[in-house]
Every structure is written in C-alpha cells, then in structure tokens.
Amino acid sequence: MADQNARVQADDLKRFTQAVFEKAGFTPEGAEHQADVLVWANLRGVDSHGVQRISWYLELLDKGHMKPRPNIRIEKETPAVLLIDADYSPGPVVTIPAVRKVIEKARKVGIGWAVIRNTLHQGAMGYYALMAAKEGMAGIAIVCNPPNMAPYGARAVGLHNSPIAICVPGQRHRPLMLDMATSVAAGGKLDVAKDKGIPIPLGWALDKDGKPTTDPNLAEMLLPAGGGKGSGLAMLFECLTSLFVGNPLLTPVYQGKPNAKVHRQNSVVAAVDIATFTDLEQYKANADGIVDGIKALPPAEGFTEVMVPGEPEERVYTERVVQGIPLPEGTILKLKSASKRFGIPLPAGL
Amino acid sequence: MADQNARVQADDLKRFTQAVFEKAGFTPEGAEHQADVLVWANLRGVDSHGVQRISWYLELLDKGHMKPRPNIRIEKETPAVLLIDADYSPGPVVTIPAVRKVIEKARKVGIGWAVIRNTLHQGAMGYYALMAAKEGMAGIAIVCNPPNMAPYGARAVGLHNSPIAICVPGQRHRPLMLDMATSVAAGGKLDVAKDKGIPIPLGWALDKDGKPTTDPNLAEMLLPAGGGKGSGLAMLFECLTSLFVGNPLLTPVYQGKPNAKVHRQNSVVAAVDIATFTDLEQYKANADGIVDGIKALPPAEGFTEVMVPGEPEERVYTERVVQGIPLPEGTILKLKSASKRFGIPLPAGL
Predict the structure, then answer these.
(1) Counting beta carbons within 10 angstroms of the beta carbon of residue A305, is it exposed (0 to 12), middle (13 to 18) or buried (19 or more)?
(2) Mean pLDDT computed over A259-263
(3) Which pLDDT tens digit goes with each residue over A311-320?
(4) How high is the pLDDT of residue A1?
(5) What letter would DSSP give residue A169?
C-alpha cells in the first residue's frame, strides 16, 4: 500500500500524467506540455501546483470549461507583441508556445510581449519565466483570475492574488527566480493547513464576514502582501492582462454577473533579450555576484542563513530529482482515480 | 515671515525651480523637465520627492556627480527597445525624452522598453508611468540605486528599496496609478518621523547592528515589504535595470569597492500601447469599472472607505492645485539659499 511517503520518479510521474491527458483528448504535444509544467512544480516542492491538480483539470474538461484541443488564434501581432486568444485552452498548451514566440521576437527586436485571453490554469508561472532565462533572456509572467482577495482596506473579495514570476540566468548559479503571489500567503498554503488541521497565522485571510480568522476552514478571502502594495500590484496586473485582451475578470464579479466566478485566466508572458543590450556572459556573472553577495550577509535573528528567492525550491528540486517526488495519500487517490478511469497503469512506486 | 503653512502656487514654484536649474547650467528644456517632476510630486503631497530636493541636486552638481548638460547617447536601438547612457544626467532630463521615445515605439510595434544607465535621481517614478497613460498606454517605470535595504532574512544592507510605478488610463476616473517602493515604508517617511521627533513602527527599519528599531534616527536600513516578496522584487529589479546596462549597483557594495555607495541610478521605462491590442475607450471604461467596484466594497475595520492606489495623492493634488503647495520651514530655507545664490526672486508667498 502506498503510504504518505510514497515516492515516484519524476519521469514516471510525467509519463503517467501525459498519458492521462492524451486519453482526455489533448494532442500528444499538448499533453506533454501539461505534464511537464505539473511535474516541474512537484519537483520544486510546489505541490499545490503539481499533479494533485489532475482531478480538477479533468473536472474542467468534463464540464466543458477546458477544451482539450482549443482553437488557439493569434489575433494581433507586431514584431514585438502578440495577442493570443486561448479559446479555453489548458494553460501550458497555449502558454509554452506563446513563450517560444516571445523569445523569437525578443531575439529579433530585444523584447517580446504576449497577452493571452481565456486560458485555463497556467500552473506555476515560474516555469514560463524560466523558459526565457534558459534562452539568455529575462522572463516575466503575470496571470489574473476571478477575485479571491480583499483589496487593501476592504472586507470583501475584490482582487485576485495575481502572481508574477521574473527569472534571469546565472552562470555558476541556477537562474535567479522570483515567483510570488500578491497575497501574504498563496492559496495552496491554506489548503496545506486545512489538510494538517492546523491554524493559519492572523493576517493571512478573512472569513465570509470580512473578519480576520486563524481557521483555514473559515478563510474566505486572502489578504494582500504589504497591504496597499500587494493590493495595488494585483489591481494593475488585471489592467496589464485582462483589460489588454478586453476580458475583465474583476468587474463582472462586482456587477454580480452570472458565471463571473467561473475559473479562467488572462496572462502576460514576456522575454527581454540580454544580448541585445549587453554581454550575456558578463550579465550572468553579475547575476551570480548578487546571489553570492546576498548569501554572504549576516542572517537576521531567527534565520540561520540568508536565502535568495527560489533557493528553497531549488533545494527541493535537487533532492527530488534523485530521491523522487513524495506524494501524500490524497494526491495518490486522485492519481488512482485517473488511472482507473483511463486504464493507465500507475507510475512505479504507487 | 514665511511660516510652516506658507503656500506657494504650483506655477510660481515651478518657474522659480526652473530658473534655479537654468542658472545651475541646465538647458532651458532640461530645467523645465526637472522643475515639472519636482513640483508634480509636491502637488501630489509626495514632498519627499519635491522641491526640498533642490539643495541636494545643487550639491550633486557642485561635486560634479551630476552633469547639468550631459552627453546622453543612445547606445542600442531596435524598433522596440533602447539602451541609453545618461552620462550622469539629472533624472528627468534624460527620462522624459526616453519615455517619449518608448511611447513612439509603442505606437508603432505595441511596446517600447528603454533601459537607462547612470542617471541621477529620477524623482517620483509615477510621473513617467503617467506620461504613457496620458497617451493611451500602460506605463511602467522601475529604478535601482545603491543598496539601502536589508534583504529578507539578513541583518545588513544588501538591496535597494527599488520602486515600481505602473499607470493606465481611466475614462471618468483619473489614471490608475501605483507608485510603490519595495520596502515597508519609503525612506521619506523616516525623514518625516525624524523631523517630527516621533517613533517609527517596528518592522520599518533596522539599526546599524541589524536590530529592529523604532527610533528613526537610529534607522540604518529599510526592511522589505512582504518579507521575501519585496526583497525578491528588489533583487529582480536590479537584474532588469542595472544588469541590462552592465552597471551593477549592488555587487560593488558587497565587494567594498570605493565610491560604491555614491548616488546614481539605472532604470527601465516602458510603454505598452493599448490600441494595438484592443479598443482604447472600452479599456478606459473597464479601468473605471475596477475603481468603481473596489470603492463600492465594504471597508475593513479601521477604515472609513476603500481607496485605490494613488487616490490619496490625487486628493492632495486636487486641493493643492487650487490652494497652493504648503512648504515647511526647512524647505523654505533651502529655497531661500538657492534664491540668494543665483539671485532669483523667491516665488510669491514666501
């Protein structure tokens, strides 16, 4: 029997996940993209964005909210920008090719900037920013959903805790990666607290009446990081994504429109080519210098070392690539259900 | 005698400021740019970035750190991007023309993105983002200086509290403007506390030993907003600005290089053209919808209303355009000193 500590090798998990999505109607390439983004998140320890999402994605497909073979169209294009209608595509299926396109544009004119309308869940945004960094570019990715966060000073939902990911290449070091939600705590952390039956810190969330709560089961809305700062970023991210594609996700909720809260996303993915501006190897060495410099600083009280953004995830990655990905019982049940439904053997170890 | 409540009309203050900088060697156009950025900050109540800076700028000119007539050069250019060497230009003198150029590029290819090397203090970054919004675009501006903030988990200076400004146009409403530092509190707020002789909240700053302090006079480094989030943004902003122009501002300080802490900046200014992607009037109406929706939410405990980013400053602006700009005694002394030095009459009211 699989226990809480059952570990699965990334390749096996990816093969399984890809097979599931192929059976669910994705093209082989689309299924590969979807599986890669999910398993990458698991490898980095961001399990909230990993294969535990499979069951939700299947639900979205069953309901017809997510189209396995969407009619993705480029609606606008210049040498530097793109507007892509995703037609309710699975996130990675539209976004990986979109990032490749902005990388091509950045190679030619220094920057590529794509806005994407009506994609479904893109997964861990860092994946897309990292794609650009691997090509010698700065990658930027932003995404907005219907609201789940109280704006600064409000006790009702009015913003999405829209994340931003920024990634640039290092030389000796791994790429420098920031992948942050604009809320104090990402939604996934509340789920973990629920699963473990432990309270959440005050300041993470409000209950349905807009009162502060430490009970993750009563948490109805997230709170913005840094008060007006996280709130302001989230508001402007909606303006940079949803409003640019003519598909507001916040105002329909304010106006109480039907289906306004149904999951869908609008997004920006961008790449800025380093070699267009400066020497790439020198850039990477300078990026290393920042990592080295910050890590050499004396730790604050309560810290044993200073870590740079992405470093904790990178450590998990290094370990899980070798030791495999540990899957909790709840996730294993979801995989078993998909295995049964599509007649696909579970990955080795389960 | 001028008292603490002396008020000066914006036009008078701008004329005076422009005359000072012309006498200090700026071109008439450069002096006009400099004066406009300073007085705009005063109008919005961001007095830390207003005319009280005149004396510091004159000091930078006297020391030869700031060049009144710099040799500004475009080093790289594509249809979408620019790399500008500012040659130690006063911030607005290089940045206002740079924003005009990115707006031109955005009009043609959807986006314009400029990185600027070695400018001096750019002032309130919102000014530049607003320039783009007035042209029907999203404006983005980011700037980095030598470090003044402790990275998350460290008790020593290692990052700059680099601000970002994002601005988009509204229709009925003023442009939506976020202009935020990546620290909990901007440096100017500590100066205000010093002047008033009041303590600062715990969590704003550390003393020279990296211990939390509530004494603004002992505050030696700022703390990042949202812990790792503000810290991560600041780190990646250095990568998007300084590293792209081959002019790191953090690593020379880590390495103890001479003059590493001398004030200078690297910056990104960018514009994304709305009409390239979608209908501009509809965009503006949708932006209004966000403002209306957020403001209609019930206020949280301790708040009497929900405000959107930039709203408090806009209210001050509305009042000061009519009533004039109140200048504290310390600022008036600085203006008097410049008046005497250059033989320029003080603005009416002082």
Answers:
(1) exposed
(2) 94
(3) 999 999 999 9
(4) 41
(5) -
Q: Indicate whether B1 pLDDT > 60.
A: no
Question: Chain B contact for A172, CB < 8 A?
Answer: no
> pLDDT tens, A28-56?
999 999 999 999 999 999 998 999 999 99
Q: Is A55 on the interface with B (CB under 8 A)?
A: no
User: To the nearest 5 percent, what fractions of chain B are helix, strand and coil?
Assistant: 45, 20, 40
Contact yes or no for B178 and A235 at CB 8 A: yes
Domains belonging to chain A, first-starting first, are 1-69+311-350 (1.10.1530.10), 71-183+224-296 (3.30.1370.60)
Nearest CA in chain B to A113: B111
What CA–CA distance (Å, rounded) separates A302 from B153?
A: 8
Sorted by sequence, the CB contacts under 8 Å of residue B166 that are 6+ apart come out as A233, A236, A239, A240, B129, B138, B139, B140, B177, B178
Searching chain A, which residue's CA lies closest to the CA of residue B307? A153
Q: Using the predicted structure, report yes or no on whether residue B4 has a pLDDT greater than 60.
A: no
Separation CA B27–CA B189 (nearest Å): 32
Which residue among B80, B156, B232 sits closest to A298, beta carbon to beta carbon? B156
Nearest to A238 among B78, B290, B305 (CB): B290
* Pick among B101, B102, B176, B278 to test the A interface (most A CBs inside 10 A): B278
Q: How confident is the model at residue A195 (pLDDT cuts 50, 70, 90)?
A: confident
Compute the nearest-CA separation of B273 from chain A (Å): 9
> Which tens digits make up the pLDDT trace of A74-113?
999 999 999 999 999 999 999 999 999 999 999 999 999 9
Please say whether the dihedral angle defined by the alpha carbons of residues A59, A62, A68 and A72, taken in this order, is positive or negative.
negative
d(CA B58, nearest CA chain A) in Å: 32
Position A2 pLDDT exceeds 80? no
Q: How confident is the model at residue B196 (pLDDT cuts 50, 70, 90)?
A: confident
Phi, psi of B110 (to 5 degrees): 95, -25
- Residues A307, A305: Cα–Cα separation, whole Å: 6
What confidence category does residue A296 fall into, taking pLDDT thresholds of 50, 70 and 90? Answer: very high
Contact of A328 with A336, CB cutoff 8 Å = no
CB pairs under 8 A between A and B: 273
Would you call A316 an interface residue with chain B, using a CB distance cutoff of 8 Å?
no
Residue type, B248: P
